[in-house]
What does this fold into?
Amino acid sequence: MTAIRVVGVGSPFGDDRAGWLVAERLAPALGAHGARVEVCALDRPGPALLHAVAGCEVAIVIDAVSGTVEAGTIHRLEVSAFAADAPTGAASAHAFGLAESLRLGAALNLLPPRLLVYGIEVGPVGLGEALSPEVVAAADRLASEIMAVIESELAPE
Amino acid sequence: MSERHVSVHVPILARVEGEGALHLRIRGNVIEELKLRIYEPPRLFEKLVEGRHYSEIPDLVARICGICPVAYQVSAANAIESLFEVEVDPVVQALRRVLYCGEWIESHALHIHMLAAPDYFGYDSVIAMARDHPEIVERGLRLHALGNALMTMLGARAVHPVGLCIGGLHRAPLEAEVDAMLGRIDAALPDAAALVSWSAAIPMPADEQQFVSVGLRIDAGTAIESGRIVSDRGLDIEARAYEEHFTEHHVPHSTALWSLLGARPYLVGPLARINLNFDRLPAPVSAALAATGVNWPSANMFHSMTARAGEIYFALLEARRLLSDYRRPERSVAPVEPRAGVGYGVSEAPRGILWHRYQIDAEGRVAAARIVPPTSQNQARIEEDLHASLRAFGLDHDEDALRAHCEKVVRNYDPCISCATHFLRLTTERL
It folds into this structure.
């Protein structure tokens, strides 16, 4: 069984790449752990995210977030923040976001025992492919942090 | 005696793809105004492909929709390949049809479970429904995942797949990949058969209406990726004759164009297809649909959900048939020689017929394009349906009930407004 699955969510557009970038940074280093750790990139949350996180022991999800704080700020969220009975927004498949997907997973008991969600605060997302230096630096910092989490999860007790 | 005036405004329709609104004004017992307003900005797809080389078109048009990219790719390929007289290998044609089956399964499973079903069980979202009916939602997710897997096998990824090119497919799958997929399809068939009877057992409003069904038909089998455009009123034309029979026009309250056949609204999509092609379905599918007790062809738009479920079952059986005895072709792309002229293509997107026309120059570049998506074709029919359906439901219901009924009617068409703007806030006024 795959112990740990890392899922980067993003798109090719500017800082929205953040989740993919973290996955790309982690993939080479995680190869050494063989089938126990898997890394994948998704272009949206939704049902595909549930298929990606179901059936492992620890899931680590990284996505770009847009709030009111400085670009490059790293947010750390716990699974309990996605309780199934939390209020839901208007959910079309186009608007079925990370929170809605994880709430659906919680309602169906599909979420792994440990679920870590990281968000990288991004600036305005344009149509170009270039990332802002703040987000690249944050992706590097977060990749190192997640690597340490994975090493400690895999370390013999 | 006092007269009742009601105004219902739904500013954003939930559980539809894209942004739209509905405005309803009722005076006494008369609907004075009813407008399905599509306000999502125009996306100008046709202009974006002008000047681009024909080889870029499948990847460009796939970006129009995240739910039905294969439909856009196939209609474009049909148009361009017919102009260039490209002879796509029959095995590769069959693989394209399987790719399209994957999209039907993925799109329909998503609509039935995540968008439509909560309406009929009294939930505001699939998340709320999942707590009480996890087995139903899980079945939907399994079918959705299988549709995605078929698309990934042939298109490299499920969203905006990149497998299709003018002349064929960039890559034909290995026999081992197809064998593994056949096992997954066999395992999913009981889910699909059960979905048909489950959907038909949901109590639906009795709401028979007169409408024209339009879809594709082929000489043998059931149309998916190509065919002649037919209606249940005798229309039977090639894709190239579309503009002689169908017209599009602007209405002030919508950024999507409205389509009419002659001077009348018409229906495209799963119910229209089943109505037109019931005799062409494989025996297990027609038997499953007949066993529901619905008299096909059906004049009740609320039977669209069962039509969708029947199409999932059909698409699985069809993918299994097409992939059985698969032998990997030596070449998956046929030679292509561009030529100047106008090409026409049509296919059955999950939501109905999707028509494309490309004018190509001598260098193989697009000089002009026209793309008519299913949702814009259904817009006039949705308004017509709302008028009839609201009268049948009863205008004396309170605003919440009117709003819920309107949303149910609109969602039933699975409108993809993002495609068409090229959808629903409801505002109601009682005066």
Q: What stands out?
A: Chain A has a mean pLDDT of 84. The longest strand of chain A covers residues 58-65.
